[in-house]
Amino acid sequence: MTMSNIRSMRGFLASSIASSIGVACAAALALPLTLPVPVATARAALAGAGSAPAPARPDIRGSTQSLPLAPLAPLTRALGSTASTGLAEQGLTRRDVRRFSLVGVVWDNPDTALHGHVQVRTRATGNGVWSGWRSLETHNDDAPDPGSAERTSGRVRGSTAPLWVGDSDAVEVRVQPEGGRRTEGHTPSTRAVPAASALPSGLRLELVDPGDPDDGGDEVPMRGTAPLVPHGSQAGPPVTGPGNSESAEALASSTANADLVPLGATVIPALSRSATEREMRTLRGHELTAGQRKKPHIGPRPRIVTRRGWGADEDLRERGFAYTKKVKAAFVHHTSSGNTYRCSQAASVIRAIYRYHVVSMGWRDIGYNFLVDKCGTIYEGRAGGAAKAVRGAHTLGFNNNSMGIAVIGNFSKNKPPTAALKAIARLTAWKLGLYGANPRGKTYLKSSGGNLYRKGKNVRMNVISGHRDGYPTACPGWQLYRKLGTIRSTAAHYQGRR
Known about the structure:
Blueprint: H1 3-30, H2 39-47, H3 58-61, E1 63-68, E2 70-73, E3 89-107, E4 116-124, E5 134-136, E6 158-159, E7 163-177, E8 204-209, H4 248-255, E9 267-268, H5 273-284, H6 290-294, E10 304-305, H7 307-310, E11 329-334, H8 346-360, E12 370-372, E13 378-380, E14 402-407, H9 418-434, E15 442-446, E16 458-462, E17 464-466, H10 478-481, H11 484-494
Parallel strand pairs: 10-13, 11-14, 11-17, 12-14
Antiparallel strand pairs: 1-8, 2-3, 3-6, 3-7, 3-8, 4-5, 4-7, 9-10, 12-13, 15-16
Helix pairs in contact: 2-4, 9-11
């Protein structure tokens, strides 16, 4: 090919790209904010593009290191015999590993409890300083319902709650059976331990790297409504961004919110009360009574960062979405992952929890429907549409007809920030309002079992409940739980209720 031909081709390509960009921008400006785009249409556009999806950058996708634990030192039984492997302390001595930011421990059987203590210490990448020993919450009670397809998939594992430790490159872990706990000097116990509990089989340490967004930082964009264009289409250049692999699942996840924002939006913007009421009539008008259509009780839609906004790798989760009939109640949680993160790191924390839930614990997707950081930013959780009744894996036995909201952090002793409490109230006022629920009211949920109630029992609960209301757990932490009354009143006020 001659240089003249090459110049001509470059000119043609530049002209075509510029023209395509102009057409795409003009089309995007002409589209209404709530333009619905059927999933089938979006998938067909992608399939007909004639080009394979471009792979996402590996550092965006993140990674998981799964390391089997081994016995460290045997305990002594009451009769003086050597303890079996199940009664031996397990763990890993200091080990250099690839970079990670979140840790957890998993085991084979999700129905087996870990009666013991799990502690980790990590080495910071930046300065090489080792942390002190930190405990992991061993009773991780967020889970898919018994008998559900997600629970019976054969992939689900038992697990501790995850812990955010920041950028680290070395780790040490010890798992001690109940009744055989060592002293802080890490000296093996030599006295009899008659009540020592066997540890679950298949213990593994999970080290999660959440990956990095394209711009090298974790700041969530304040605005973002750029259309997601199927790779290879003629509507304009493919849009890139955190977690956008341009796959069918990335497109489907974005399409699930197409009744709220254009394809590819990184943020669902806040709406005024009047605009929210109009949107509600559009979304659920066929289910509203005449009185509800005239004066609906719903809070103004809050700003929500979408999954694309926090960088979800959509190819990680199971395909498709799981729905329930309606949203009658909201369960409030904390993630138990620690409070040391900065708000600018919240997207990374969520990506790490997402990867831990799916890769390490074997769930179909992140368990919570929404997450809230300590600065009050709201994030879309499980895929399927922020306004839809998506079935989560947040409150064992009560995932039907409910939603789960998790505040990132631990609030057993720490008081939850006012910004986070306000965000929960705004979110519940909107989402519960879409389904006609009163935040100050009561409702009935049918138990699927595995919790405080037998399977099939109709349980009367607060419309806004804490996780501990349905399961014997400390979640969402006493300091957050005691604020639920204030959240209920504030949410009802946002809905315009007296």
